[in-house]
Amino acid sequence: MLPKLRLIVAVIVLVSACSSGGGGELPAGPDLMKRAAEAMRAVKSATFSIATEGKPQVPLKQADGRLTAAGDADGTITLDVFGILQEVSFAVIGETVHFKGATGGFQKMTRAQLAQFYDPSVILEPTRGIAQLLASATGPEVEGVEGSSYRVATTFPGQVTGQIIPGVNQGVNAKIWLDQATARLAKASLPLPGGTVTVSFSDYDAPVTITPPPAG
């Protein structure tokens, strides 16, 4: 019985070690966040997704699209406008925004006009976007490894978070996932009053060309 007991204990220990994501010493939180901010400032393009769970008190409910560091972007945004969800397709090219709702064709507005509602191109903007959000984090603590990412608990100031998620005006105790190899942001979970906003990124630096939608 004793050899069998030892074998069972050994298996339990091995499984526990694997499931913990352990393996090597975890990096210091502030150092990792500094690397992450620098990595995000160097990003040339990315695919992004913003989703909500529950009923967080923000007008942006969902967004999916592509971004370039130059500020061009395209995709779809779902906004809560006076209690009614409205999905808008968009293409931001230079200072011109092409957009359309559920019906009708594309119309145009300026980037400044779009910014009154939500400008997704700010996400990769170094001084207001994700890079600045990571640089402004306080008390980052690396909790462990999940898949190929470090899971980090940290707090983001509301002023900076609100640039990316309009309607946020208070500090957010967030969980973020940073790629181990590149330190780029893979995902961020932002608990807010009423629910949670999750921001995800993929396809970093893939070739992206944003073109105007067909006329008519």
Automatic annotation (TrEMBL):
Keywords recorded for this protein, A-Z: Cell membrane, Lipoprotein, Membrane, Signal
Where would you say this protein principally sits, based on its record?
other
Q: Which InterPro entries match?
A: LolA/LolB/LppX (IPR029046), LppX/LprAFG (IPR009830)
Q: Which Pfam families does the annotation name?
A: LppX_LprAFG
Locations listed in the record: Cell envelope
User: Can you tell me which residues the record assigns to a coiled coil?
Assistant: none
Signal peptide positions (record): 1-22
Q: Which family does it belong to?
A: Belongs to the LppX/LprAFG lipoprotein family.
Determine if Transport is one of this entry's keywords.
Answer: no
Entry keyword Cell membrane: yes
Q: What name has this protein been given in UniProt?
A: LppX_LprAFG lipoprotein
Question: Single GO cellular component annotation?
Answer: cell envelope
